[in-house]
From TrEMBL:
InterPro entries: KFase/CYL, KFase_sf. GO terms for molecular function: arylformamidase activity. Pfam families: Cyclase (PF04199). GO terms for biological process: L-tryptophan catabolic process to kynurenine. This is Cyclase. It comes from Frankia canadensis. PANTHER family: CYCLASE, PTHR34861. It comes from the Bacteria. Gene3D superfamilies: Putative cyclase.
Length: 326
C-alpha cells in the first residue's frame, strides 16, 4: 500500500474552505437545527444511557505516554476535626491556620477534591488540533497555532457552540461479526463492513449524524482488564463517512482506528484524514455496551446523543460523559 492512495483520498475528502476560511467547527457544521429537532424526536421511551467510563486510577490508560487520572482529596471534614488535637508543631503551619481560621468554631464541615489527568485518559473528544501532517491542521491552520500555551485555533472549546448534540447511530461491529468479546486487533474494519452492519441493523446513516462504532474492546477491558488494542476502522472508512456527511465518529476503543496501519510510515492515517482533512472529530473510550444491548433487543439503532466537551480553554481534547437518550 502506498502513501499515494492516502494522499489521493485526502484530496478527495478534504473539507477545507467548505464552511468558510475561518471555520473551526468542521463537520459539526452539518448538525443543523432540523437535525437537532430530528434527534430530540427519537426520545420516546425515556431511557438514558451514560456512555462515559469511570474517571479514576483503574481506567484503561496505563500505556506509553499516558496515565490513568489521579484523584486526590484536598480537604475533608476530618481536617477540621483534627484541629482540636493539633499539636504545637502544626499550629504554625499556614494550611492548618487557614483551615482553623475558616472552619474553627463553625458548624460547617466539607470535602473538596482535585484531579490530575491527561485530557485523553477517559471517554473523550479529540479536538481538530489533536493531529496534523505537512505542518497544517484542519482548514489549513498552521501547526504553529498550537504551542505550550495551548491551541489558539481548533481547540476543543471552539466547538461548544454545537452542543455537541445530534442524532446518534450505533453500528455494532462486534455483534455483526458474531464475536463474543471483541473484534481482533489487526483485522481492520473496512467500509463494506460498515455498510453491511448498517443494512443488517436496518439503520441509515445520513448528514449530521454522529456514528458510534462498537468493536467490543470495552467489553473485553471490563471483563479481563486487558488493554491491548482491538480492531478499529481502516483509513478507507474516512471516505465512507465523507460520502454520508457524518458529523463525528466515536468508538468504544482507544483510537477509533486500528493502531496496526497498513500504510508504512503512517501510524494513524484515519486520524489524519478525519481530523485534519475532513474536520471530523473523534470520540474514544466510549462505553457502548448497555446501549447496544438495548438497541439489539428492539432493533432500533438511533437515538438522541448529547455529548458536550468541557470548555477547557486551548485544549486539544476533552473528557466527557456522553448521554444517549431513547
Ligand atoms: C493519539 O494517540 C495520537 O491519538 P488518540 O488519543 O486520538 O488515539
Amino acid at each position: 500500500m502506498t502513501s499515494d492512495s492516502f494522499r489521493a483520498m485526502a484530496d478527495r475528502i478534504r473539507n477545507w474552505g467548505r464552511w468558510g476560511e475561518d471555520d473551526e467547527l468542521g463537520t459539526l457544521n452539518l448538525i443543523t437545527a432540523d437535525k437537532v429537532r430530528q434527534a430530540a424526536a427519537l426520545v420516546t421511551e425515556g431511557k438514558v444511557f451514560p456512555l462515559g467510563i469511570s474517571i479514576g486510577e483503574t481506567g484503561p490508560q496505563e500505556l506509553l505516554f499516558r496515565r490513568n487520572p489521579l484523584h486526590m482529596m484536598t480537604i475533608d471534614g476530618g481536617d477540621a476535626r483534627s484541629l482540636v488535637r493539633i499539636g504545637p508543631e502544626w499550629a504554625a503551619h499556614p494550611r492548618a491556620q487557614e483551615v482553623a481560621g475558616f472552619l474553627g468554631g463553625d458548624l460547617l464541615r466539607f470535602n473538596d477534591d482535585f484531579i490530575a489527568m491527561h485530557l485523553q485518559s477517559a471517554s473523550q473528544w479529540d479536538a481538530l488540533s489533536h493531529v496534523y501532517y505537512d505542518e497544517r491542521m484542519y482548514n489549513g491552520y498552521p501547526a504553529s497555532a498550537v504551542t505550550s500555551f495551548g491551541a489558539s485555533r481548533l481547540s476543543i472549546d471552539r466547538v461548544d457552540v454545537k452542543g455537541i448534540t445530534s442524532r446518534g447511530v450505533l453500528l455494532d461491529l462486534a455483534r455483526a461479526r458474531g464475536e463474543e468479546l471483541h473484534c481482533q486487533h489487526g483485522e481492520h474494519i473496512m467500509p463494506d463492513e460498515l455498510t453491511a452492519a448498517a443494512a443488517a441493523q436496518g439503520v441509515e446513516v445520513g448528514p449530521g449524524d454522529i456514528v458510534l462504532v462498537r468493536t467490543g474492546w470495552m467489553t473485553k477491558f471490563r471483563t479481563t482488564r486487558d488493554t491491548s488494542p482491538s480492531a478499529g476502522l481502516n483509513w478507507r472508512c474516512a471516505e465512507w463517512l465523507r460520502e454520508r456527511d457524518v458529523a463525528a465518529v466515536a468508538a468504544d476503543n482507544s483510537q477509533v482506528e486500528d493502531p496496526v496501519s497498513d500504510l508504512a510510515g503512517n501510524m494513524l492515517p484515519m486520524h489524519l484524514l478525519c481530523l485534519r482533512d475532513m474536520g471530523l472529530a473523534f470520540g474514544e473510550y466510549w462505553d457502548l455496551d448497555a446501549l447496544a444491548d438495548t438497541c439489539a433487543a428492539d432493533g432500533r439503532w438511533d437515538f438522541q446523543l448529547v455529548a458536550p466537551p468541557l470548555r477547557i480553554t486551548g485544549a486539544v481534547g476533552s473528557p466527557l460523559n456522553p448521554i444517549a437518550l431513547r
